[in-house]
Design brief:
Length: 128
C-alpha cells in the first residue's frame, strides 16, 4: 500500500517512506530521514536530522523528533537518532539527536509509550 501525505504537509525529497505511512496535516519532514511501514504522523509533527524510525510507530501532534541537542557544546556535528518499532509518542514529545561527547546517537528500542510533554535528551538509550 502506498504512503499517504496530506497536501498541507512538507516532505523533503531526501525522506524515505516505507509502505502505508500516513502523514497528516501540517507536518514538516526534512533531513536524512527513514520511516518504516505503517507509521502514523497525526498532525503538526516535525522530524529532522539523521533520523531512523522503524515500523508501526505513532506520533501525536506537536512532537519534535530528531531536533538539535539542548547542549551548548553542540556545533552541528553529524549525529543521529534511532527509533525502533511500535512506539507511541503523545503530544508535545521532543527527542534530540546525539552529541559527540555522548556517543553521537540517541537510541530508543521498541514498544514504549512516551506520554505528553516528555523530553528525551541527547545521547539517551531507552530499552523496550
Amino acid at each position: 500500500m502506498m504512503s499517504q501525505i496530506h497536501q498541507n504537509s512538507f516532505v523533503s525529497k531526501k525522506v524515505q517512506l516505507g509502505k502505508n505511512v500516513k502523514i497528516g496535516p501540517f507536518c514538516y519532514l526534512d533531513g536524512n530521514i527513514q520511516i518504516g511501514d505503517n507509521t502514523v504522523l497525526k498532525s503538526h509533527v516535525v522530524i529532522s536530522g539523521n533520523t531512523f524510525i522503524g515500523k508501526n510507530n505513532t506520533f501525536y501532534p506537536f512532537t519534535n523528533i530528531g531536533c538539535d541537542p539542548q547542549d551548548l557544546k553542540f556545533k552541528g556535528e553529524d549525529s543521529k537518532l534511532f527509533i525502533g518499532d511500535s512506539n507511541i509518542f503523545r503530544e508535545n514529545v521532543t527527542i534530540s539527536k546525539g552529541t559527540n561527547d555522548g556517543g553521537i546517537l540517541t537510541h530508543i528500542n521498541n514498544k514504549n509509550l512516551f506520554m505528553t510533554g516528555v523530553h528525551i535528551a541527547h545521547d539517551c538509550k531507552i530499552g523496550n
